Input
Amino acid sequence: MIIGVPKEIKDKEYRVSLTPGGIECLVKAGHRVLVQEGAGEGSGFGDEEYSLKGAEIIQDPAKVWHDAEVVMKVKEPLPQECDYLREGLQLFTYLHLAANEELTRCLVEKGVTGIAYETVQLPNRSLPLLTPMSEVAGRMAVQIGAHYLERTCGGRGKLLGGVPGVLPSVVVIIGGGIVGTNAAQIALGMGAQVTIIDINADRLRYLSEVLHGNLITLSSNPHNIAEAVSRADLVVGAVLLPGAKAPHLVTREMIAGMKPGSVVIDVAVDQGGCVETSHPTSHSDPIYVVDGVIHYCVANIPGAVPRTSTYALSNATLPYALRLANLGFLEATRRDPSLAKGVNTYRGYITYEAVAKAFNLPFKPLDDLLN
Output
């Protein structure tokens, strides 16, 4: 099979979908890998490294897309890449379609097989291809928040952990999943007072057992969220409904009740955001202010630490890429129900129900199409 690795073009997106080691595994399995010239530079991988592992270095991105049977990316195709899409192409990447109707319709109209990293799901409901980037984003959210709390960045001028005799900053994390847990670990390690809010009481019990420091856990409801947010110096939005648009749990009214110079980091923004006042920003222009509150809503936070992120992502995705390449799409998805859950579009249909519901579009189960 021919696998294509184009260079990411999203603003300051320095990750790449495969490391040289990943290329070597695919080539040794008998597959061709086309890597766009410069695709790995942002992560510290030169073209020569890829070439030595058996990749074919291609200058023209159109040729990578045209010749490949499977295109592996990190982020969803941007509008200027949609011209490369074609019927039968297998696209294996983060798609986040529930927050992107334009891309959803494009994939359907062009008959692309869209396999989303974020909806590949194991029997225990974990998301193996989303987890590593959630870990990175959760950890980064707190260090970013600490930075923007500095007065020189427009923040309240508070040190996250305080000092002896001075109260620490208050960090409120909405969602106790992978992002929220990693954010809490960093915030607690820096000495902040941390409140985690989640709808799952068992999850809160678990977090209270494994996390140590100045930790409060709260059951998720509008009253508790409003009370916690009103006291927060830093709010981290970490809500996830797999494949679906995130609900707005933090309202505009709650934001208006926060102290001027407080900070919101909405990690869920690539799924629509869990803060009503959120909209996607970029690494080049990461923040905006609403009611005196700094909002950081970059949709590709891990792209800022590409060396770490690329290794973490490739470690997770490579086994699935090998399965697709070795078995072909039909056999791979029949044998692996977890991979089948990643299929969001196929043969002109939306095959992930939450995406269809987000835009009131027709849904067809993948099993019906395969059978």
Q: What stands out?
A: The mean pLDDT is 97. The radius of gyration is 21 Å.
